[in-house]
């Protein structure tokens, strides 16, 4: 963390600069049980890559348990666990074969219960990833559907249809799958003949469930209760704008929509009006649990729709509590783009009564350090880390909730040169393209030491991590980050702790300040000012004196390029800011 003191440009701790308590983890005030999610910061644990306790080279639930004190120290409010259910892992758990169990590679239900108990003891919420749009082709329902006859009750749990063409040899419609190829695969009937086709909007191993069949919502009701009864605090909902398809399954107006890009969306496969009733039902179910003990259960949706106003429909007061705001995550490093998406979010999402759920990184996207390294024309060079640090302070100063993806707090860059033979992302295997592949942000975390496995996996017989870690991961290992006060880790920790202790941060209003071009600045509450310089040249700081916290060296009175800072401003910030 870099913090400037008055005048001299040297670093000091936030405590000495502001007389704030240093907020040791044990002193963090507990959050109110109700509405805790409105400004919570949740840490996304990609279980497979977090910490391996068994030496098989794959992270597991016991590893997550071991890491909980680390997360508590960082200062997050809870964790979201990526899917750990039994799965053939064609899409690393987003192909669920049993929604009510733990894959043996990750542990078992007893280990899960211990994890929840430990997390709660440490004051951390636990969110699970629930995947309702599709299951695995290994799920007993799909196996039964393959055995069933056309039109039979097991087929009706999915989207089976006869093919077109003289012999049914063409898919029932022109829809494309998100991960490449047609969204339909043809099966062999029990007698060995070519048979019907089934719909899969992702891979063929992820058949889409038919939510118009009442047995599907009924079973998910049981699944949610199963985990809520085990004490979880809510769910991250995969593909929450999916689930319902146009009832007639007609051709898409754009025959290339959805293929390898979400820019062109098939309007008949996503965002159908019927899906909102599912979220109303799930919200009512959560409220039922809240009524028992006053503790909110959270539903946060992965809602990939075109505009913030479309997204707002998903977070109406009786639907999802929150939806990830991906327009910030996809924004390029440009002051006008950032200002526009933040303003739209605050207008459209906050107007629903929900809070905006900011996110800069996740398991599907190139990490910020790498993403911000070059502009649209290749400019930018080595500024990726500085910009990623600035973006982190910006995100933590915005009103609402935020999600931090594991490794983000270490400033991990994307691993861009994984050899083809280790790549596991179905996008690579189904398209043959390295574009948009997701393995590079999923490489197992470095915890300690100077060589792979960097403490990720233990024991002399330990298998290699499931994806190879580059040598340069040593620079980012947790043990180093914890001792280096200029590390990303300290910046995140200090930002998170200030966020907890300053009433101006978290929920509440934001007021933009007039700034020079390239600078974005706003005031929170009665005088917390956040400014980000998107340019490369220093500008006068909007507030005199030293910042509370800055993402880079920040001498008093100046805001250098690719830097963000927070100041407390005692006077009415409307009257005398530069
Ligand atoms: C979501 C997940 C992604 C997964 C896909 C299919 O977008 O974030 O990882 O591959 O859904 O379930």
From TrEMBL:
Residues 12-26 have a biased composition (Low complexity). CDD domains: AmyAc_OligoGlu_TS. Keywords: Hydrolase. The keyword Hydrolase applies. Coiled coil: none annotated. Pfam families: Alpha-amylase (PF00128). GO terms for molecular function: alpha-amylase activity. Residues 1-26 are annotated as: Disordered. SMART domains: Aamy (SM00642). The keyword Hydrolase applies. Residues 44-442 form the Glycosyl hydrolase family 13 catalytic domain. GO terms for biological process: oligosaccharide catabolic process. Belongs to the glycosyl hydrolase 13 family. This is Glycoside hydrolase family 13 protein.
């Amino acid at each position: 963390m870099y913090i400037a003191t008055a005048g001299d440009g040297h670093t000091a701790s936030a405590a000495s600069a502001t007389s704030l308590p240093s907020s040791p983890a044990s002193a963090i005030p507990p959050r109110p049980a109700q509405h805790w999610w409105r400004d919570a910061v949740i840490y996304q644990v990609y279980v497979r890559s977090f910490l391996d306790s068994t030496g098989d080279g794959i992270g597991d639930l016991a590893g997550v348990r071991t890491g909980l004190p680390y997360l508590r120290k960082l200062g997050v409010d809870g964790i979201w666990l990526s899917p750990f259910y039994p799965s053939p892992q064609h899409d690393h758990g987003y192909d669920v074969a049993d929604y009510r169990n733990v894959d043996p590679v990750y542990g078992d239900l007893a280990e899960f219960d211990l994890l929840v108990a430990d997390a709660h003891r440490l004051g951390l919420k636990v969110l699970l990833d629930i995947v309702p749009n599709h299951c695995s082709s290994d799920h007993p329902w799909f196996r039964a559907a393959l055995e069933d006859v056309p039109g039979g009750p097991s087929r009706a749990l999915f989207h089976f249809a006869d093919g077109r063409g003289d012999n049914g040899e063409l898919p029932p419609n022109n829809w494309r799958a998100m991960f490449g190829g047609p969204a339909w695969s043809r099966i062999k009937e029990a007698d060995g003949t070519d048979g019907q086709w089934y719909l899969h909007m992702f891979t063929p191993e992820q058949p889409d469930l038919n939510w118009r069949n009442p047995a599907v919502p009924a079973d998910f009701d049981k699944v949610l209760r199963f985990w809520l009864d085990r004490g979880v605090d809510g769910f991250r909902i995969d593909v929450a704008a999916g689930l319902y398809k146009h009832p007639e399954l007609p051709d898409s107006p754009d025959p290339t929509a959805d293929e390898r890009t979400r820019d062109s969306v098939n309007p008949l496969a996503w965002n159908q009006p019927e899906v909102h009733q599912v979220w109303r039902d799930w919200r009512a179910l959560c409220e039922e649990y809240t009524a028992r003990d006053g503790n909110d259960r959270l539903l946060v949706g992965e809602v990939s729709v075109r505009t913030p106003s479309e997204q707002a429909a998903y977070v109406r007061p009786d639907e999802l509590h929150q939806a990830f705001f991906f327009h910030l995550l996809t924004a390029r490093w440009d002051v006008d783009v950032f200002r526009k998406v933040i303003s739209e979010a605050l207008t459209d999402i906050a107007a629903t009564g929900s809070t905006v759920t900011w996110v800069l990184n996740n398991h599907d996207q190139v990490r910020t350090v790498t993403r911000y390294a070059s502009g649209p024309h290749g400019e930018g060079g080595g500024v990726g880390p500085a910009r990623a640090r600035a973006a982190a302070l910006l995100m933590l100063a915005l009103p609402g909730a935020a999600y931090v993806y594991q490794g983000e707090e270490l400033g991990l860059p994307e691993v861009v040169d994984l050899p083809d033979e280790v790549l596991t992302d179905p996008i690579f295997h189904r398209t043959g393209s390295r574009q948009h592949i997701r393995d590079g942000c999923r490489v197992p975390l470095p915890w300690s030491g100077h060589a792979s496995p960097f403490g990720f996996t233990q024991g002399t017989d330990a298998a290699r991590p499931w994806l190879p870690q580059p040598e340069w991961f040593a620079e980012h290992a947790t043990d180093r980050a914890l001792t280096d006060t200029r590390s990303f880790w300290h910046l995140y920790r200090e930002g998170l702790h200030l966020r907890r202790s300053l009433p101006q941060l978290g929920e509440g209003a934001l007021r933009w300040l007039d700034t020079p071009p390239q600078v974005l600045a706003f005031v929170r509450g009665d005088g917390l000012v956040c400014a980000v310089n998107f340019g490369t040249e220093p500008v006068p700081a909007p507030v005199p004196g030293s910042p509370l916290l800055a993402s880079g060296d920040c001498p008093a009175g100046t805001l250098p390029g690719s830097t963000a800072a927070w100041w407390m401003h005692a006077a009415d910030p409307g009257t005398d800011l530069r």
